[in-house]
Design brief:
Chains A, B: GO terms for molecular function: ATP binding; glycine-tRNA ligase activity; transferase activity. The structure is a homodimer of 721-residue chains. In chain A, strands 3-10-11-21-16-15-14-12-13 form a 9-stranded mixed sheet, sandwiched between helices. The first copy, chain A, is built from 25 helices and 28 strands. Chains A and B meet through strand 2, helix 6, strand 3, strand 4 and strand 8 of A and strand 2, helix 6, strand 3, strand 4 and strand 8 of B.
Chain lengths: 721, 721
């Protein structure tokens, strides 16, 4: 019998389902273990009680009129103890903040973000009106990076995998999101300042409280610290009541006003609106693009020649009305998703191109390693499948393809891991889920979710719309199948149940095989049986003459089934932000007097592939620069001229900061210098070859190292060396 | 003094401004002239009155007992008259419907739309839930066409013109759209069914009534017909009161129920929502992308090295909550816009690349031709500028670039015209506006608006935000400028006006040069003057001792000004729909027993560039087909294998219907046949050259005719000939 989420799913499970779907970052739940930190807290508490005891002793010495030398000696000993305590406190602070690295991380992030904002990679939206939290604009270089990432996504997934791309509206009528569960369950728990009405996310307040205590209350007992750590670990699983109880217990108040807070209550994260003028048709801005694909399953299946497997894909905006957005580009109210729904026969999840990825090796973090407190380790994808760690080939195929996608963009593979969902993180219907997590200064960030969601979504829309979203497998020859046949005798049932007859009949017909065969046996031995009819809310007595139950052999010509869906879902903004962090570095200027910023973007994603500089302001050189720029543009290579009179070193620094991989310096009218950003290698190339060389190397058809072999090096010292 | 739209703009002007901005189709207002139709109506009315008179005469003959032969003769004459009347009626019907062409248009449209829907170019959104009016999905081929159009747009405009592309959110806070005028004025007039509450667009009802009358009430007098035609011509200019009066006068009722209708009232077309959980922050889904660029002007100007001119561009979704969407893809509630805002010094609207477009010739429809009832004619763009028909070079440059963009996509240049806005269509601040209109089965459709909006938008946001959105021109040497100086004597003003002093001072300081110099003269002669202070709503007496007015010579080092903006705004969905109509044709099948559909998309926009067929189902051929498909994919050429056993002719027909320009038939393992869609020419190419040939011709680096010269023709009769 079909599963109905509204009645049987626990809200905590659903909130995890939502997180799974929602590309949120999630801390890995490591079971509390004895750590250096714990033993330091223990030592600190012991030292404090020794100090307290010595203090009392000194006061007694003084009041009992002990000698000055005796007292001085005791005070000196006490001061030594206090120094030891300070030393332990420092060790504890270092331990809490991860050997001081959180400080470095903040500084690093600040350097990246300052560069990004100054060079308009992104800008807080509507800045002249003081902005809106959680909304950002991509400025010119950010917009180019995004468009390159999306173009590569289309090439890598849609084109190479023959996917059916669709483009559906953001405005979505209520009925669709009612079916998907979003109207009822897509919520976060919120508390309100009881006086001002300001809103806060309940879990954020509790998290901030615990973190703050752990970092700053060094005198806290190891037991108390363990409790707070446990709260942090299970935070995502707490119900509204549990969150409310903890907030009360810890005396947490509104951070801005110190006013008391309301109990937590759910706030739906969808932006709501009205479709049409009547006010009678509620709509929402879609919280994900996937539903647009599911509702089109029937047409897409037909378009694919009624064959499975096939994948549909969609790139588009999604919207979440976050209660209090944080973490810059990582938690926003509007973002670009790229989603794939791969529909497959649930009985055959093999993948024809599996062998192309099965020997890949990369960091994986299976469930068991997480539960036993180990860390992620490099696994061979094929081994993970054969050992049953990854549920099936198709899921593994996408994990492999996502790995290739992210590393080709420039994500550092040492800071990329695939983390399997723990049982309590996964929706009950999901077969297996893995998140591609990328390490950034904010920690490990979920950037791609890859989930085997079984038949859940198609079934939900079949139920709500009454349109069967199913596939057929035609048998080469008809198959004989044993089928359960339940035949109610309506006359008898009518006499016995009158107005309730219909519900009793429906309940009888809905029995599964075991229930029916049990009933048959019971009726044969006892002649009657008690039967619970949920829709009536009571138990009725079924007699032998009211129905017949049998198994019959039937010929079937086809199998009709709901396909499983495997869903890789990409948070494009998150991937881009992590790529910025992974690509950023600083190096000293030629004079050594300042640090210069560089983004080491691969040419594939670089916002501009090439800059063109005349070495000096001179009409001949400027003409050559123009000509080169025109031929680059005609070849479809994005480029920028810089004809300001600034020093060539300054111009290189400007362009490095935008991550432009190649710079052409026009220093003669026949041949020019091409400089590569990271190595600062320089070669000489004839003016009429430049566009072709840059096009080849920036489209990845050859490497800079190949180019370096082919052309003479530029011998004079480069301007920024 | 600055212009404030809320107080001085007439609502009809603003509604036209909105239409200008909103890519709506607009019928050209041709002044009513004497037409064939009018004279036919006249003839019909005369014939009818003759018939009436003869009828009366016959009745008199009968009652006066005339002879049978006399009566028969009169009846025969009457019947002849009735035949003549029928003939006139038929002529009139033909004249009204444009010689029967509207019927053909409908049939043609139906053929296109059926093909588009059947092949999933587009689908009504949320179809399994019975859809939502005005929302459409792009299925796989439609999505590919759209993505090709946008990629070409980026190459043609952003890359070739060095534009700064940005990407801003759809969710927009109220303050931004308050400043732009959308919150107050972005409305359509609506009427409600007074019993059911159903909503209708007031102008649609009036338009439908007039059209229906004109088409079906043949007995209507020529005067009445002229009146209804006049109503249609001025429909867009009617105020709510005027619309309401006409609806009452004509007795128009709710079309579904025949219930009475309410008076017209404005309905705001923006989708409204709430940002954040508090309910205190109203937001809207943006009705256009342009505002995101305007609010970022300061940062973009800085990014461009504080230099003008420069252009910013944005591609993205826009939303309009239409009262009752019609016309399929042409009037929708969510659509993709591509907008350019080119910022330029208002004193210098020349364009450096103007000479590249000035010799282009195409259909233009200047204001004067429209007003005098002429039709569009082919003009040379350069002549149009030099004769002052097009306001300036930059506007003309974009008109030329839009012409090149549309025709390269495959829009038929004979069904493309650039229509200038009439004075009453243009916002008062606009310098000049031209729409690229494409003729479709729905008539001439506005697909691109190209407007010189002067400084309006930047000024509106400067006023509302308090942030100066201006540019500076630094002078090589300081310039001496004569400046008006108004110095209020606050002591005297304070004594005279007390609490109202501030408003009086502001009004005095806001005087323009002429007003100030007039006041100075009056004060010198009369000693005092009456002065109206709008903000006080009264006139006050200003005395000579209350202020000094003078002109002083000041040295200025720079000029600070608000740039003008020239805005080309592209309705991508409309362009694509018109492209579908212009690309569609039918041709007989080989057997001649059916008509086959073809889309003659140029390779640039074709959703798939190439299909690959093994001639027969055979493992060797299928292996070759796979290999060719893989090499095409690796080269970034979208392709599709069709390995069904269907006849090659059927497979060609399928792929023609998707507009695929090239088909590769694998009929040997060494060389294969390439067939071009429209000519059906076939050539033979070696297997390992295929991908390179297809890539070259589909990326437009060579033409099919060149390829045809280079490779041997396939000699055996092609399968579909």
């Amino acid at each position: 019998m079909r599963y109905y989420p509204t009645t049987t799913i626990s809200s905590s499970l659903f909130s995890l389902f939502r997180r799974t779907r929602s590309l949120r970052s999630s801390a890995v739940v490591t079971p509390p273990m004895a750590t250096t930190e714990d033993s330091l807290r223990q030592a600190l508490a012991e030292k404090q009680s020794t100090i307290d005891a010595r203090g009392t002793a000194i006061r007694q010495l003084k009041s009992s009129g002990a000698s000055k030398s005796e007292i001085d000696e005791a005070v000196k000993a006490l001061n030594d103890l206090k120094l030891e305590k300070t030393s332990i406190e420092n060790q504890l602070k270092a331990s809490i903040s991860g050997e001081g690295s959180s400080c470095n991380k903040e500084a690093f992030r600040q350097a990246v973000v300052n560069t990004l904002e100054r060079r308009l990679f992104y800008i807080p939206s509507f800045k002249i009106y003081r902005g809106v939290a959680g909304l950002y604009d991509y400025g010119p270089p950010g917009c180019a990076v995004k468009s390159n990432v999306l173009a590569f996504w289309r090439q890598h997934f849609v084109l190479e995998e023959d996917m059916l791309e669709v483009d559906c509206p953001c405005v979505t009528p209520e009925v669709v999101l009612k079916a998907s569960g979003h109207v009822d369950k897509f919520t976060d728990l919120m508390v309100k300042d009881e006086k001002t009405g300001n809103c806060y996310r309940a879990d954020h307040l509790l998290k901030d409280f615990c973190k703050d205590k752990l970092e700053n209350d060094l005198a806290m007992s190891a037991d108390k610290a363990a409790e707070l750590k446990h709260v942090l670990a299970v935070l995502d699983d707490l119900s509204g009541e549990q969150l409310g109880a903890k907030i009360k217990e810890y005396g947490i108040v509104a951070p801005d006003t110190k006013n008391p807070l309301s109990d937590p209550y759910p706030f739906n994260l969808m932006f709501q609106t009205q479709i049409g003028p009547s006010g009678a048709s509620t709509g929402y801005m879609r919280p994900e693009t996937a539903q647009g694909i599911f509702v089109n399953f029937r047409d897409l299946y037909y378009y694919n020649g009624n064959k499975l497997p096939f994948a549909a894909a969609q790139i588009g905006q999604a919207f979440r009305n976050e209660i209090s957005p944080r973490q810059g580009l990582l938690r926003v109210r509007e973002f670009t998703l790229a989603e794939i729904e791969h529909f497959v026969d649930p009985d055959d999840k093999s993948h024809p191109k599996y062998s192309e990825v099965s020997s890949l090796k990369f960091l994986m973090f299976p469930r068991d390693e997480q539960m036993s407190g180990q860390s992620a380790k490099v696994l061979c994808l094929g081994d993970a499948v054969s050992k049953g760690i990854v549920n099936n080939q198709t899921l593994a195929y996408f994990i492999g393809r996502v790995y290739l996608f992210l590393t080709r963009l420039g994500i550092d593979e040492k800071r990329l891991r695939f983390r399997q969902h723990l049982p309590n993180e996964m929706a009950h219907y999901a077969a297996d889920c893995w998140d591609a997590e990328i390490e950034s200064s904010y920690g490990w960030i979920e950037c791609v979710g890859i989930a085997d969601r079984s038949a859940y979504d198609l079934r939900a829309h079949t139920d709500k719309s009454g349109v069967a979203l199913v596939a057929q497998e035609k048998f080469a020859e008809p198959k004989e199948v044993e089928k359960l046949v339940i035949t109610p005798v309506k006359k008898e049932l009518g006499l016995a149940f009158k107005g309730s007859q219909k519900m009793v009949v429906e309940a009888l017909e809905a029995m599964n095989e075991k229930e029916a065969m049990d009933m048959k046996a019971a009726l044969e031995t006892k002649g009657e049986v008690e039967f619970e009819v949920c829709t009536l809310g009571k138990t009725v007595t079924i007699k032998k003459n009211m129905l017949s139950i049998s198994k019959e052999i039937k010929k079937e010509h086809q199998r009709v089934f709901t396909p499983s869906v495997i869903e890789p879902s990409f948070g494009i903004g998150r991937i881009i932000y992590c790529l910025y962090e992974h690509s950023f570095y600083m190096r000293p200027s030629k004079a050594g007097d300042e640090q210069l910023n560089v983004f080491r973007f691969p040419p594939l994603v670089a916002p501009i592939k090439c800059t063109v500089f005349p070495l000096v302001q001179n009409q001949q050189y400027e003409e050559v620069a123009k000509q080169i720029s025109r031929s680059l543009t005609a070849a479809g290579v994005s480029n920028k001229k810089d004809i300001t009179g600034t020093s060539i070193g300054k111009r290189y620094a400007r362009t490095d900061e935008l991550g432009v991989p190649f710079a052409v310096t026009v220093d003669s009218t026949s041949s020019v210098t091409i400089r590569e950003r990271d190595s600062k290698d320089q070669i000489r190339v004839n003016v009429d070859e430049v566009a072709a060389v840059i096009k080849e190397v920036s489209e990845g058809r050859c490497q800079w190292t190949d180019i370096l072999q082919k052309y003479p090096a530029h011998t004079s010292a480069s301007a920024d060396e």
